[in-house]
Amino acid sequence: MALAQQDQDVGVFQMTVLALDIGATKVAVGLVGADGVTHEVGRIAVPPAGVWEAVRGLLLAAANGSQVEIVGIGACGPVDAPAGLVSPLNIPEWHHGFELVAAVRELFPGASVRLAVDGVCLALAERHFGAARETPDALAMTVSSGIGGGVIVGGMVAVGHTGNAGHIGHMIVPGSTDPCSCGGVGCVEAVASGPASVRWARERGWEGETGIQLAADAQEGDRVAKAALRRAGIALGQVISSAAALLDVDLVVVGGGFAQAGEPLWRPMREAIGAHARIDFLGDLRVVPSELGAHATLVGAGLLTALAPAA
């Protein structure tokens, strides 16, 4: 399955339309305007417990008593989009499945609810408003607390039979045996995500706590921090090269908080791509930062509301 953003549908909203972005560490909600553009109106940290209660309060505050007609949801994965389930690896309370679509429908009776994994939303956003708007074939990926992605082929965003197409975070890094929260070993999420890189650095004596601190220390020349980001960058470059060869794309858009770590991450990533993406048809491969930054998934969730059919 694939999604094509319908330009003719954007701009026809005469109703209250919400977009919801559920990430590993934050939840954001936005209002989709009459022009089809999503504007964030609320944001909270993901609580350790009572996640739905927190999300519910955020949605009700955004609705502000009005009748909600459509809700577009981008959620960290995995998801089961046909069943309306989310099972985020990084939200323990929902790890075994939460019926998110049903819960939103109960909150807003009669509303049409559309669910996609966050990587699909990222790809939709970058295709319509961001760095991939000029090309019909691209890979969009997010590097943050987790690693996800979405695939654009022929101008359409691939979905897959469960809704998880493009989930690049669980491609395997050559030679890695790092355990992943998915139950496998060697996944790039277990090697190159922000928390994985922080954990690796702390095991080697670095005393910081967050990916932001790790990136800052790497910029300042800290030996362990630089090594952690180099390790992450090489792993990302390896899986990007593999995915680009599989998909025959000429553009990879990389977003997410940890992707903003700068040259200590991007230089080794590009070096690894240069070493591995050697086949002729990848000669024009470009890897660029997301143009939409932290709002990309929310923007993509808003774009879901212009798509049919509804969930």
UniProtKB/TrEMBL annotation:
It holds the Pfam family ROK. It comes from the Bacteria. Keywords: Kinase, Transferase. The keyword Kinase applies. GO terms for molecular function: kinase activity. The keyword Translocase does not apply. Belongs to the ROK (NagC/XylR) family. This is Glucokinase.
